[in-house]
Each structure stands twice: as C-alpha cells, then as structure tokens.
C-alpha cells in the first residue's frame, strides 16, 4: 500500500518540470492527482496518462493561477471530479528569465503584474479556494515551491525575489493559522533545477550556455533534478512528515 493511498493532490503547473515530477511521485505513493496547466495541454495529458497507468486517477485542468475566476472554475471542477482535495502543491511559477531580468526600477507594470500574479496571487487564489474544504480532512498539506532567490536577492532577480519572499510570508502565516485544523504548510526553496525554467536561467545569465555546463561546479557533480524536489514534497505529505510544519526547506546542495 502506498504511503499516500486514499489522498488526493492538486498540483499547479503539473505539466512540466518540478510540477510534473511531483505529480508522478505523489501518484507512485498512491495519491490521485488533479493536474493544472496554463498552456501545454498535451504535456499535461501525457503526465495524466502515466498517472492512470500507475493505477491512480488523474484529471487535467487549464487555468492561469493568476486569474481568480479561472482558479474558481478549476477548483469547482476538481472538487466535483474527486471526492475532496487534501494536498495542495503550489508549484506553478514564472521565472525572471521570462521577463529578461529587469532591475527593480526598470521593470514595467506588466512585468511586475505577470510574476506577482503567477508566483504570489496564484498560491493566494488556490489557498483561498481550497483551504476551507481541506480543513474537513483529518490531515491536509500545503506545499509552496518558492526559491532560494527569496533570500539571495541578486541584481536582475528583484521582481522574482519579491514574489517568492511574499509567498513565503503567506505560507508561514497560513501554517500558524491552519495548524488547528490538522494542516501542515511547508515551503521548499530550490536552487537551480534542471527544467525549462532552469535551462532558460542558465542560458540568460551565461551567454547561452547549456545547463549541463553547470554540472561540474554543482555541489555533488550534477544540477538538482525535478525528482529531487518531488521526493521532498512526498516526504512532507506522508506520515513520515506528519510532525513537520511551518518549515522552509532549501534544496540547493549548499
Ligand atoms: P517550468 O519548467 O517553467 O514549468 C512551469 C510550470 O508552471 C508549467 O507546468 C507551466 O504550465 C506552469 N505555469 C506557468 N505559469 C502558470 C500560470 N500562470 N498558471 C498555471 N500554470 C502555470 O518551471 P519549473 O522549473 O518546473 O518551476 C516550478 C516552480 O519551481 C516555480 O514556482 C519556480 O519558480 C520554482 N523554482 C524553479 C527553479 C529552477 O531552477 N527551475 C529554481 C527555484 C524555484 P504550461 O506547461 O502549461 O506552460
């Protein structure tokens, strides 16, 4: 019997990268999974096909997490499709390379709105919609995928760093507020991870370099993989993590 048998997760940004690895890991642990995506329906459907092949239930839902109405429609549909959701992984995000790493002063209103929308309002929207029904479960979990950038505060990463620092403040507060309902709330702060986002960051900051060029200088001789992050999400949500809440776990090899 899997460690997450009988539980249902909703993973935002589950079509690619860390989100897709998380969906598959939670399913391998026995969870059914609602998979959110923004644009890549085919990628989300491929992830769902693997989940079903593992013997678990999966459904896919298009929604821009920055859009509260879209999140409402997604959550209504997911709660109708599954008997309830007791694990929420706020993973969907947009990186600084997507807006060409402007300085704090040079970033446009649109660039601030894009990253604050996806990286901060996304988790806020999802928590506001799902946490009230998650309280009914004897145990529930919220995991927020943040970034080491929330504390590194490097030049050109300001818009992203602000969005991640703010979402961490939300998560720490939520952990204190919802503990009485059996909810564990934790933050994972990865360093560089080998995903589309990670590859874009390396290319943008190192003259088009391939992420593989970072392996030799990475802490253990390889850049962190999405599976490394997914393994910790699973640990937090299983019985093994039942006494862990309000923590920020850095996964960077440092
Ligand atoms: P990725 O490879 O770029 O994948 C992003 C995922 O998020 C995709 O599934 C995408 O859906 C989805 N998404 C993006 N914007 C969305 C929106 N507005 N609404 C709904 N879904 C949206 O990114 P990743 O590297 O896996 O990153 C996942 C999380 O880890 C992010 O929060 C990121 O900030 C964080 N992180 C990443 C790294 C890294 O080096 N990769 C480091 C630290 C933290 P579509 O496929 O439909 O576009």
Radius of gyration: 17 Å
In terms of per-residue confidence, which ranges show pLDDT below 50 for 5 or more consecutive residues?
none
Order of helices and strands: EHEHEHEHEHHEHHE
CATH class: Alpha Beta
Gap between N and C termini: 34 Å
Topology readout:
Blueprint: E1 8-11, H1 17-28, E2 32-37, H2 41-53, E3 58-62, H3 68-81, E4 87-90, H4 109-134, E5 140-145, H5 149-152, H6 158-178, E6 183-190, H7 196-205, H8 226-237, E7 248-251
Parallel strand pairs: 1-2, 1-4, 2-3, 4-5, 5-6, 6-7
The structure holds NADP nicotinamide-adenine-dinucleotide phosphate (NAP).
Please provide a brief summary of the model.
This protein has 254 residues and is an alpha/beta fold. Helix content is 44%, strand content 15%. It has helices at 17-28, 41-53, 68-81, 109-134, 149-152, 158-178, 196-205, 226-237, and strands spanning 8-11, 32-37, 58-62, 87-90, 140-145, 183-190, 248-251.
């Amino acid at each position: 019997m899997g460690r997450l048998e009988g539980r249902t997760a909703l993973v935002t940004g589950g079509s690619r990268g860390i989100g897709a690895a998380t969906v598959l890991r939670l399913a391998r642990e026995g969870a059914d999974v609602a998979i959110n995506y923004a644009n890549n329906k085919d990628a989300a459907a491929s992830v769902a096909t693997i989940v079903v092949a593992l013997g678990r239930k999966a459904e896919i839902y298009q929604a821009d997490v920055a859009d509260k109405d879209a999140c409402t429609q997604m959550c209504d549909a997911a709660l109708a499709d599954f008997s309830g959701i007791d694990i929420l992984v706020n993973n969907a995000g947009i990186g600084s390379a997507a807006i060409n790493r402007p300085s704090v002063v040079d970033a446009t209103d649109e660039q601030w709105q894009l990253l604050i929308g996806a990286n901060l309002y996304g988790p806020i929207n999802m928590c506001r919609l799902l946490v009230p029904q998650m309280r009914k479960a004897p145990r529930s979990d919220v995991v927020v995928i943040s970034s080491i950038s929330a504390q590194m505060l490097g030049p050109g990463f300001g818009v992203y760093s602000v969005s991640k620092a703010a979402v961490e403040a939300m998560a720490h507060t939520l952990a204190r507020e919802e503990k009485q309902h059996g909810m564990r709330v934790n933050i994972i702060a990865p360093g560089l991870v080998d995903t589309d986002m990670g590859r874009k960051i390396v290319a943008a900051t190192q003259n088009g370099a391939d992420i593989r060029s970072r392996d030799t200088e990475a802490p253990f001789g390889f850049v962190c993989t999405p599976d490394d992050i997914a393994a910790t999400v699973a640990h937090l949500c299983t019985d093994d993590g039942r006494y862990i809440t309000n923590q920020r776990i850095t996964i960077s090899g440092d």
